[in-house]
Design a protein that fits this description.
The complex is a heterodimer of chains A (66) and B (376). Chain A is an all-alpha fold and 66 residues long. Chain A is built from three helices and no strands. The two termini of chain A are 17 Å apart. Chain B is globular. In chain B, helix 1 packs antiparallel against helix 9, helix 2 packs parallel to helix 9 and helix 10 packs parallel to helix 14. Chain B is α/β, with parallel strands linked by helices and 376 residues long. Chain B contains 14 helices and 15 strands. In chain B, strands 2-8-7-6-5-3-4 form a seven-stranded mixed beta sheet, sandwiched between helices. In chain B, strands 9-10-15-12 form a four-stranded antiparallel beta sheet. In chain B, helix 8 links the parallel strand 6 and strand 7. Chain B has two domains: 242 residues, Type I PLP-dependent aspartate aminotransferase-like (Major domain) (Aspartate Aminotransferase, domain 2), CATH 3.40.640.10; 118 residues, Aspartate Aminotransferase, domain 1 (Alpha-Beta Complex). The chains are: A mainly alpha (66), B alpha/beta (376).
Chain lengths: 66, 376
């Protein structure tokens, strides 16, 4: 399986949740992904904001998250 | 936090809250009891019913208190009185799910009227269905036409008066889900020829969990059985504080309707002009002129509406979306599908619904953050 890395800092092996939050917020058909830190920077929010969102999506049963 | 999702719910009006308080704390008597402690509660119910009836030009005995819009819609559709045992319900394709799902009944024939690209029900489309051979539609006497007064997603206001007239000319009854319209646009049930009308208090700055169904005498079967409340049509002790709050909120909204409409129209204009100036590629969904004040439903090319909604949420702005997706499913709302929004725009659908408390500064803030996010 192809390893996905952060387009900004190059961090390797992004987790399913990280890829999921990228898709959920930026669109399911995106080709490039950010790690959690870089996504938070890019969106001018905090990593905690993203983690809270991930938990909400999981509770809703969204299949993008593990 | 900026709240711009007033089609979902509205903030409770402070006067409504103050009017409710005595009936929560001091005047808590059951209005059905014969002792003098119940007098104030009984009178409050009577006064609220009269106020609400006046607000839509109905008679007090034609107002039945319910738990809200969903119950009112279910009651109207499932329990309208007919001489035949075969029920036929004709709805538009863009009704709320509380109407569409109420029609999923093995004993009902359900016919859907298509809408045009603005979400408007055309008279000729209703006539086509009403004039189908009797084998298909059976007796007109058992037919109910249910078309919402204004759509909850795209804000399109339907030509209810014309549709009701057509329904009556074909021997059918006319119900309208006016949940988004009551307290926001003028309603005269008599002049508009409406037989039944559903409303929900929390959409017009009243409390949640209360609404009403207007019904001309003799059209309805009881909603459920029990005591003699609501003329025996809806048994169960009345929610007096909520009913009082609903009446105060509705009366106040109607008194302020003109100024609210002017204010909301200005906010809408500001928001859309900022988006146009920023060259955002979007479609404004719904009827451009005959629409609810403050309703903005737009589809942005190549974007995810759900993503935009969550990004705005992360910036402290509450709006709604017309699509949702995960790795498996792409769900575009039935309304957006019915008005044929092009595929490359449909997924990027969001709904912003301003309320009377939103300010121009808030609208500009939303617009500017939105532009930034839409360009990500």
């Amino acid at each position: 399986m192809k390893k996905i890395e952060c387009i900004a800092c190059g961090e390797k092996n992004l987790s399913k949740n990280t890829i999921g939050i990228n898709k959920k917020l930026l669109g399911t058909d995106i080709k490039n992904f950010y790690c959690m830190d870089c996504l938070a920077d890019y969106l001018e929010i905090t990593v905690d904001d993203l983690l809270e969102k991930i938990e909400e999506f999981k509770e809703e049963g969204c299949t993008l998250f593990s | 936090m900026i709240y711009a999702d007033n089609a979902a719910t509205t903030k409770l009006d402070m006067d409504a809250f103050e009017a409710m308080k005595p009936f929560l704390l001091e005047e808590y008597a059951n209005p059905s009891q014969p002792y003098s402690f119940s007098r104030k509660a009984k009178k409050a119910l009577k006064d609220a019913r009269k106020t609400i009836a006046e607000c839509i030009h109905a008679e007090p005995e034609e107002i039945f208190f319910t738990s809200g819009g969903t119950e009112s819609n279910n009651w109207a559709i499932k329990n309208y009185t007919v001489s035949s045992d075969i029920h036929h319900v004709i709805t538009s394709a863009i009704e709320h799910h509380s109407v569409l799902n109420a029609c999923k009944n093995p004993y009902f024939g359900h016919f859907m009227i298509p809408v045009d690209n603005y979400g408007t029900v055309k008279a000729e489309e209703l006539i086509k269905i009403l004039e189908r051979p009797r084998e298909a539609v059976a007796s007109c006497e058992s037919t109910l036409v249910s078309v919402m007064m204004a759509n909850n997603e795209i804000g399109t206001i339907q030509p209810v008066r014309e549709l009701a007239e057509i329904a009556h000319a074909h021997g059918a009854w006319f119900h309208t889900d006016a949940v988004q319209a009551v307290g926001h646009i003028p309603i005269d049930v008599k002049a508009m020829g409406i037989d039944m009308l559903s409303a929900s208090a929390h959409k017009f700055n009243g409390p949640k969990g209360i609404g009403f169904l207007y019904s001309k005498n003799g059209l309805l079967q009881p909603f459920h059985n029990g005591g003699s409340q609501e003329s025996g049509m809806r048994a169960g002790t009345e929610n007096v504080p909520a009913i009082v709050g609903m009446a105060v909120a509705l009366k106040k909204n109607i008194a302020q309707m003109k100024q609210n409409t002017v204010h909301l129209s200005k906010l809408t204009e500001i928001f859309l002009s900022v988006l146009h100036q920023a060259d955002i590629d979007f479609i404004l969904n719904g009827q451009p002129t005959d629409r609810l004040p403050g309703n903005i439903n737009i589809s942005i090319k190549g974007k995810s509406g759900e993503g935009l909604m969550h990004l705005l949420d992360l910036k402290g702005i509450c709006i709604s979306t017309g699509s949702a997706c995960d790795s498996v499913n792409q769900q575009i709302s039935h309304v957006i599908k019915a008005i044929h929004v092009p595929d490359n725009y449909a997924e990027g659908t969001i709904r912003i619904t301003f309320g009377k408390e939103n300010t121009e500064q808030e609208v500009l803030k939303i617009a500017n953050i939105f532009i930034k996010i839409a360009n990500i």
